């Protein structure tokens, strides 16, 4: 999911917090929106950190070189 999921949660949370004025008994839509925005921000930060770590890897090639000993005279 990563970056796209984090952005989606941020947008959904902002819509629930600031744009929806309906009321459902026993459900605070504003609070659910803030929770979604917090989860989206956390998801976005974690995705960026994980992608930065993935890009920071290095690969080394190991080449084995074996010389045969000179023939005994």
UniProtKB/TrEMBL annotation:
Domain of life: Bacteria
The DUF6458 domain, residue ranges: 1-65
Pfam family name, one: DUF6458
Segments crossing the lipid bilayer: 31-50
The entry's keywords: Membrane, Transmembrane, Transmembrane helix
Protein name according to UniProt: DUF6458 domain-containing protein
Species assigned in the record: Cellulomonas gelida
